[in-house]
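Teaching note: in complex prediction, the entire set of molecules is handled at once rather than each chain in isolation. The prompt given to students was simply: 'Predict the structure of this complex.' The entities are:
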Amino acid sequence: MASRAAGKASGKAIARAPRETAHEGFLNHKRSRWLKIALFLSALAIAVYVLTDPQPRPNGGTVAGYTLGTIGALMIIWLSLIGLRKRIITTKPYSLKGWTSAHVYLGLSLIVIGTLHTGFQLGWNVHSAAYVLMMFVIISGIYGIIVYARLPEQLSANRNEATQPQMLEAIRALDRQLDTAAQPLGKDEADLVRLSLERTDIGGNLWQRLTGRQPRCGTARARDAIQALVNQQMRTGKPDQRLTQILFLLERKDAALAQARRHIRMKTLLEIWLYIHVPATFALLAALIAHILSVFLYW
Amino acid sequence: MSFVVRQIAKRADGGDIIRTRTLAAAEITVGRGTDCDIQLADLGVMLRHARLMQLSDGTVAIEATGGIPLEIDGKFVNRADLSVSDNPKIDIASHRLTLAKGDTPGAIAITAERVVAASDAADAASEIGIFSLRETMPSKRGLAWAFAGLVLIIGLALPLFMMGGSMLPTDMVAAAGRPAGASDAGKLQPALGGDAVRNAGYSADMVWSSGPLSTAHAGLSNNCGACHSQPFVSVTDSACISCHKADAVPAHASADRMDKGRLQTTGFQADIHKGLNLPDGRCASCHKEHEGPRGALMVAASFCTDCHTGLSGRLTDTKIANVPNWEDHPQFKPTLVSVASLTAPRFERVLLTDKPMERSGLIYPHDIHQSATNGVGNMVRKQGLAAGANGALACNYCHTPDSDGVRFKPIEMEKNCGDCHDLAFARDGGVIRTLPHGKPEQVAGVIRDFYLGQALSPRAGVQRLAFERRAPGRMAELESADLRVTSVGEARARGNAAIAQIFGADGKAGGLCSDCHIVNNTGAPNVAERYTIAPVTLASHYLPKGQFPHNQHKTYDRRAGDAACVACHKGVMTSKASTDVLLPGIGECRDCHGSTKVATNVPATCNTCHGYHYGETGQGGDFTNSPHRQPAPPAKVATRATPVRLGSAEPTKAVRKASA
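The expected output is the structure of the full assembly:
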């Protein structure tokens, strides 16, 4: 009561949004408003498809077909505009979150609208090419939603409060220590340390980024070789103190690399779909132009 | 004799730290080891890498001691004498030693510095390279341009470049235009060759095809312009009728009647069609192409009722009844003989409910022939004719199925009636004299000549076969007395009496002809012309607009054989006159063929019984009513006069038995 009275006195709204609303993501934005709209659109499209009985069979050229096709084409154009919208920093008329929510759900409803527009007729032609590209874009988008929903948490857990520069700096610091620690060593041992210093690629190529595995990594090879040396020495007597220190450093570097590579793997999974989603969208827009123009050219 | 060593190290802020030492020795060592005079903290350097010896003023010998050759001014050597005045450069791993003359005489200055940056000199840019895909993948923008460009080239630019110029193959059009002759027999697509072959290659605009063409049009698959003659204009009838001449589409009424009769689109659909420049009533409105091999001819039941529902409202002069669906299909209107004739019979369609009468000209009471106990039944037993389960004459004794089992072979007197109604009239030695069926004027002549011949030159063993019923035992006596004539006049009188009796004219009993035929006495003085037989025309197809495969209906309501026949053809057992029309009505069909909407029934769609616009004329159902066509030729399909054949010289079964 006291706080309410204080709020009244100050003339400011003190009621805070409930915590769950504050954390509302794009998937359940505004109580899943766009999910409902998309479901309604899909149901409407299915109803139109089922209730009309075009002869000799349903296809894109019937009245229902043209209607679904027009709606679908306009939706595709609007959906592709998210690339423009996200570059404009504004909250009006719709927030980017709302826009993304609509993008996701309306994009998913295109599976129904686009498929019914085809009348389940597919062939080796520009029309089916447009459909396949559309499905490509949607499927890559579904993948995007899944990784956006799941990976950030894992990414954060793996990062363990460290920033990307900090991760790199940790590796560099270990490199400097290795460099210093290896100075008194003979050529063969020094070369093993150089293997780690010079033949370690943190990121690697696309496949290594996606798997997070680099079995031929210089550090791993150096660690294994020095481990073998230390083991050998332990069988005959006390191992070389300098080697055991370098082994310790290499193991720490290996752990730091593993963390960075897990980070890179998840970042790659988060980014890779856009390399399909975006170019396929533009290919789809091109195919849509060819599809619509050719349909009316050869009417 | 001294070396002045300047070691340069990089500071974190980029500046240099220079440490200078003077080593008063003629020989110094270089290496990573802490005991070396010049220590290089570089793992590429050996613990003891090299040794420098001052030979004389201005000359230094250098020797590799670590087993790795030295790189001096780009050359790898194990040992070299260097002139200091040349300022030689010695590269060891990431470091470089540069020799120069010292400030003091005899001194040699050695500058040692790292020339290859240490690996940890990474900058902020590499962070993006390491953690994002930006440097691993081609740019999204580049990929987008590449993919979009590829699609536009294959899907639009190439077809646009190739578009136009393709036409209907001229020889295909020419082939469709010329009258069908012997040389064209069996040539379904006479244009395979010439233009068609020329157009058979790859065509870039094939990627615009929304689906395969129907089998008949497959030859035009890569020849889009053949039908799509104008850009942005939907396929017009002119493209269709350049091959499909009016005479070659017999099942269609004229275009304007088809247009009038069809269901007009209204409302939203009509607006869409109008807005998209898709006029209704074109050939392509019904014959949809690019729908697969059977596409152009695919027909659904609703396709029929689209026009046949309320047809009379749109096509006011049509004689075809409205058929909105199977439930409301009108009662049958069989095609019946109205005037029998050997040359020009007339038919009319009469509703089954309008007391139809078949005027075939034949006398045939079904009821007598279906009895097992009367004379007919007796005859069946004696002659061993095909009998039904009840012992009466079997239906298929007369109604024998045709080769495909759909309908029945025409009824022939000799085959279907002759076993009982045989035309033998005399025995001449071992030969049975038979009258020719279907030739009444010859019949009279044969009988007259038979009596005259017997008067002029009587022969033994010639016997007239009698037809009247006589008391048993007196038959032979009567028969021989009939031929015992004494004069030509008597013979002529006997002959005339026999003719009148055989024809059965004027209601005379026991007439051979009048059993089945209406015989007229013209009163002509010439006896050969005196009696005429009313012409007989038997219909061969009562419902020519439909098909009823009898062989698929051999059982009905758990009955088989003749019982199944009369289960539908209900009046047969009691029919006393051949004017009775014994066809089942549509109600009998509906007993089994219910609505398509009832799952338990045998569904009936339009094409269960009907083809597209099959009519008596073969010219389309509404053809005869069209003022735009030539008057219809006399009906032919349902017309079939009783076959006329000469009397057989072979004795029939009945006579053979009698003579035995």
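Point out the following to students. Chain B touches chain A through 71 residues (CB under 8 Å). The radius of gyration of chain B is 55 Å.
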